[in-house]
Amino acid sequence: MIRVSVDNTKCIAAGLCVGREPGIFDQNDDDGLVFVHRENVLPGEQEGVIESERICPSGAIAVHTD
Ligand code: SF4
Predict the structure, then answer these.
(1) DSSP calls for 5-64
(2) How far is the CA of 50 from the centre of ligand 1 (A)?
(3) For residue 66, what pLDDT is reported?
(4) Residue 6 · residue 41 · CB < 8 Å
(5) 22, CA 20 to 30 Å: which among 8, 37, 50, 66?
(6) Which residues of the chain have pLDDT under 50?
């Protein structure tokens, strides 16, 4: 299983990750900065989370392999 974390001091609220994997990523209503609903990524979400890490323009997403 993989885990995901976000550094929202790097996030620029572009929303690409939320569009790709909305079950994991979401944005604050006030400032648009990202947060994760759930750190542990289910098998069906892995591809979207790994792609989100790749496409995030600010490098805010980190995928961890246990
Ligand atoms: S893709 Fe990156 S910059 Fe955009 S909302 Fe997600 S974490 Fe923030």
Answers:
(1) EE-TTT-----HHHHH-TTTEEE-TTT--EEES-SEEPGGGHHHHHHHHHH-TT--EEEE
(2) 13
(3) 77
(4) no
(5) 66
(6) none
pLDDT of residue 24: 98
Q: Which two tokens stand for residue 9?
A: 């001091």
CATH number of 2-65: 3.30.70.20
Q: What confidence score (pLDDT) does residue 45 get?
A: 97
pLDDT at residue 11 in the model: 97
In this structure, which residue's CA is closest to atom 4 in ligand 1? 14
Residue 56 C-alpha to ligand 1 middle, in angstroms?
A: 5
Q: Is there an atom of ligand 1 within 6 Å of 13 CB?
A: yes
Single-letter residue type at 3: R
Residue 20 and residue 52 in contact, taking contact as beta carbons nearer than 8 Å? yes
